[in-house]
Amino acid sequence: MTPIELLAPAKNPDYGKTAVLHGADAVYIGAARFGARAGAANATAGIENLVRFAHLYRAKVYVAINTILYDNEMEDALRLIRQLYEAGVDALIIQDMGLLQCDLPPVPLFASTQTHNISLEKIRFLEKTGFKRVILARELSLDEIRNIRRHTAIDLECFVHGALCVSYSGQCYMSHALTGRSGNRGVCAQPCRSAYRLLDANRHTLVDNAYLLSLKDLNLSGYLLQLMQAGVTSFKIEGRLKDLNYVKNVTAFYRKRLDELMEHDGDFTQASSGKTTFHFTPNLKKTFHRGYSAYFIEGRQKAASPETQKATGEQLGIVTQVHPEFFVITTQYAINKGDGLCWLHPQRGLEGVLVNNVQGNKVFPAKKVNVSEGMVIFRNNDSAFERQLAANSSDRRIAVSFELCEHRLGYRITVTDEDGNTAEYIAETDKIPAKDAENARAQIIKQLCKLGHTAFSMSAAALTLSSGYFIPAAVVNKMRREAIIRLETLRIDRYHASETKRTEQNVPFPKAPVDYRINVANRYAKAFYEKHGVTITENAFELQNEYSGKTLMISKHCIRYQYDACPHRQTVRKKWQKSLFLQDNRHIYRLEFDCKECVMKCILT
After folding, report:
1. Looking at the predicted structure, is the pLDDT value of residue 496 above 90?
2. What is the pLDDT of residue 572?
3. Number of CB atoms found within 10 A of residue 339's CB
């Protein structure tokens, strides 16, 4: 059977532990430095603590060191990598190819999505240069993923949920050009979430004040089986900067969905140990999202959310009456005090309010609002659901069986877990004949079941006794407790993170631009590419001073397609000119449409 991994985000070690307890088979977390989310950095000691916790469940911990690196940072990066290896992490997620020129410990390497893993040729190159896994570009379709799987053996990981970058990952320089904050350095300012004007060649406004580069969030929950069958073995949830309830809800939803699929398809199995139960019903509509999109998994789709870049949540219903102190919503859902409601105002965009009180379908807002009949109301904060998540929301247990038998000193208890690990404990005590053998037996089993706040649950118990004995509850409890402690220690100590001896074949780098878009920021990266037949013509964008005329992003999202003006894939209704421009408060950007590759480029004028 093929192990299928659910990979969840960890802003910090506590978030990582929560993700594991909500069913994650692996978590990814940022190191103390050099992660693509600088706001989610973590000390190595905390990561080591998370590693021990995760490994108890046979879950893995991957650490992101996926920024491009400058020459004066390489020594620190290598020192950090060695510390993480010693902490027992299961893999490193990297972007900078300069690291492959260095003396790395034998920790598996994953090619970050920022290495622009969009083509079969690039993925085959990464496989031959020693990567254990590639994180696929979000823009790939099912057919493209199937083709990659047919021609490679490398592990394939893909995003299935969360925020989408409008540009190909690793190929966006807009934030750095505008603010000096580089996405490839972990500090993106997210200019794609800003409002723009769309202009024609004569600078006439076609679309005004719209979020033309802001995409909906990814949701591939309906495609998990197809992705499994296509060869993906790791399903990744975006969100290292999201809150804890997001991690709980989204991880739980995908855990339940994967378990359902595996139950009906014997070709796949869970990648870690333990069964997770939930004390709430996971619901993706109730967690932060900007509307959902399957993006390009089945080919070209409209994926933008030009009306707002903010979270809208679940659609509740329509306003049917408006009064000075309340408004009435026709809805099938219960609305509660403390809920956050929002709506799209025709002139002012997304607005919202907290609910102060509810009487049936009458909503009394916490402040005066400007809603009108016919408006669609959304709920972007469900207070009752949030309270459920804030409580004890999950329980993950590893199945164990007990065998209790006689020993010359008293009794021996043996505990065996679902992975075949075994521990035992011998209790020195007198053997006391039971007055009621059946009742005594039942009481022993009752005590063995009391696994409390441990990571285990009892699946079976066997009592191999020559006669009916009364064993005091205190003795049984101590036997159970000591055996479980030994088993827990054994599970952690026996777990050894995979090591890999990286071998790099002398293969040419696939044909691609070799200018700043290859992201060479240090001499080691330059040497790596030269070794593979590349003549670097420019340093990384972040090392340059002049940005005019440069392509700031390349996107599969196409504004012409979004507004029904594609001359090739749509029955054109809008007769827009070929030359289009974006404008913000400071700059104008020329949009270039490469219809052969079906991509849009944004170029600083």
Report:
1. no
2. 72
3. 23
Report whether 471 contacts 413 (CB < 8 A). no
The CA angle 30-257-90, to the nearest 5 degrees, is 30
Residue 383, domain CATH = 2.40.10
Q: How many other C-beta atoms are found inside a 10 Å radius of the C-beta of residue 294?
A: 16
Q: What is the pLDDT of residue 223?
A: 98
**Helices of type H across 406-471:** 437-448
CATH number at residue 49: 3.20.20.380
User: Contact, 16 vs 50, CB < 8 A?
Assistant: yes
Average pLDDT over residues 198-223: 96
Q: Is 567 within a domain?
A: no
pLDDT tens for 529-541 read: 999 999 999 999 9
pLDDT at residue 605 in the model: 94
Q: Is 590 inside a domain boundary?
A: no
The whole-number average pLDDT for the span 406-413 is 95
pLDDT digits (tens, 9 = 90+) for 264-284: 888 999 999 999 999 999 999
571 pLDDT band (50/70/90 cuts)? confident
| Token couple for 560 | 């012409």
196 in a domain, yes or no?
Answer: no
For the chain, the average pLDDT equals 95
Distances (CA, A) of 273 to 4, 307, 412, 417: 12, 44, 26, 10
pLDDT tier for residue 576 given thresholds of 50, 70 and 90:
confident
pLDDT in tens, 377-403: 999 999 999 999 999 999 999 999 999
Within this chain, do residues 227 and 274 fall inside the same structural domain, yes or no? yes
Q: Which structure tokens are listed for 316?
A: 């509740």
Q: What are the CA-CA distances from residue 39 to residues 92, 94, 521 (Å)? A: 18, 17, 22
The domain in which residue 360 lies consists of 310-390
SS3 67: coil
**Amino acid found at 331:** T
- The radius of gyration of the chain's CA atoms, rounded to the nearest angstrom, is 28
For tokens 């509307």, what's the residue?
A: 291
Same-domain pairing of 107 and 57? yes
Strand 422-428 to 410-417 pairing: antiparallel
Number of domains the chain contains: 3
Evaluate whether residue 545 is within a structural domain.
no
Burial of 98 (0-12, 13-18, 19+ CB in 10 A): buried
Tell me how far apart the alpha carbons of residues 108 and 110 are, in angstroms, rounded to a whole number. Answer: 7
The answer to whether the predicted template modeling score (pTM) of the entire model surpasses 0.85 is yes
Out of 470, 494, 518, a domain closes at 494
Edge-first strand listing for the sheet containing 599-604: 205-210, 196-199, 580-583, 588-594, 599-604, 551-555
If you ran DSSP here, which 8-state letter would residue 272 be given? S
- 263 and 336 share a domain? no
b/e 538-567 (16+ beta carbons within 10 angstroms → b) = ebbbbeeeebeebbbbbbbbbbbbbbebbe
Q: Kindly state the tokens that stand for 180.
A: 């000096």
Helix (H, G, I), strand (E, B), or coil: what is residue 30?
A: strand
Mean pLDDT of 578-602: 94
Same domain, 484 and 369: no
- Same domain for 384 and 420, yes or no, is no
Let me know whether 366 and 452 are in one domain: no
Give the C-alpha separation, 201 to 592, whole Å. 12
- What separation in angstroms does the CA of 482 have from each of 55, 390, 440, 453? 20, 32, 21, 14
Which residue in 245, 224, 247 sits closest to 20, CA to CA?
A: 247
Could you tell me how many residues make up the chain? Answer: 605
- Phi/psi for 32 (5° steps) reads -60, -30
